[in-house]
Design a protein that fits this description.
Elements lengths: L9 H15 L4 H8 L3 H9 L6 H11 L3 H5 L20 E4 L3 E5 L9 E8 L16 E8 L2 E5 L5 E3 L4 E5 L4 E5 L5 E8 L23 H12 L3
Antiparallel strand pairs: 1-2, 2-3, 3-9, 4-7, 4-9, 5-6, 5-8
């Protein structure tokens, strides 16, 4: 996997998208602040393009607007039926950014996923750069594609991941990623969101061939009962 091109301006996209959605829903900044828990001042700065929101701030805004993340970053019809699938080609992931990270949202055509897959470039070089640490419901998996990162949480000592390493943790802990190698780290982050509106078990999206088969003993007993006419 390679980092997506950066010709677009993610901050401007987020600013325009928020303004369009808020106006379309007839919400004032104060009303959205009350719904999302994001302050009026921060919402105003985001809309003006003065600041770029972190992932969890975007998620809180989406909750306040009553829409899934994918509808925020990429408007248009979404697939929400069972048996759904999507493919994100190189260069087609939807970009947005914060002061510390660049993000590219994958599988944005699918609505209300229980997992949110994000490709990230970690630009932050120290924990002191963060005025806000990420925290959101659910669990998170991170895999380092290239570079090295240090993960900081509010419950554990910082730990390092090199290229090829991964970690899985409770994302309700405050957490941040910091690049510690020579260049910006490139990672894949997948967050599980248990509060997705159309929540379904993971097995609902598995190929039937991948599902566990009934125990051998039960199948044998079933055949025996048929032979015995029971």
């Amino acid at each position: 996997m390679s980092v997506q091109p950066a010709e677009t301006k993610p901050i401007g996209l987020v600013a325009e998208r928020l303004k369009t959605l808020r106006h379309g829903m007839g919400l004032t900044l104060q009303e959205l602040a009350q719904r999302s828990g994001v302050s009026v001042s921060n919402l105003s700065k985001i809309e003006r393009g003065d600041v770029s929101p972190s992932f969890d701030v975007v998620m809180r805004i989406c909750e306040g607007l009553g829409i899934p993340l994918e509808q925020f970053v990429k408007p248009g019809p979404k697939t929400s039926v069972s048996g759904r699938k999507t493919v994100t080609r190189h260069g087609q992931a939807v970009p947005f950014s914060s002061d510390e990270y660049n993000y590219w949202a994958h599988a944005s055509e699918l609505s209300r996923k229980t997992m949110v897959p994000l490709e990230m470039k970690v630009r932050a070089r120290s924990a002191e750069q963060f005025g806000h640490w990420s925290v959101h419901a659910g669990e998170e998996f991170v895999y380092v594609i290239s570079g090295s990162i240090e993960i900081h949480t509010d419950q554990y000592e910082p730990f390092t991941l090199e290229a090829g390493d991964s970690a899985y943790f409770d994302s309700a802990m405050k957490h941040i990623y910091v690049s510690i190698g020579e260049g910006d780290a490139h990672v894949l982050s997948v967050s599980h969101n248990p509060n997705a509106a159309d929540r379904a078990g993971v097995e609902g999206f598995m190929n039937p061939a991948a599902r566990p088969a009934p125990p051998v003993a039960l199948r044998r007993n079933s055949r025996q009962r048929k032979c015995e006419g029971k």
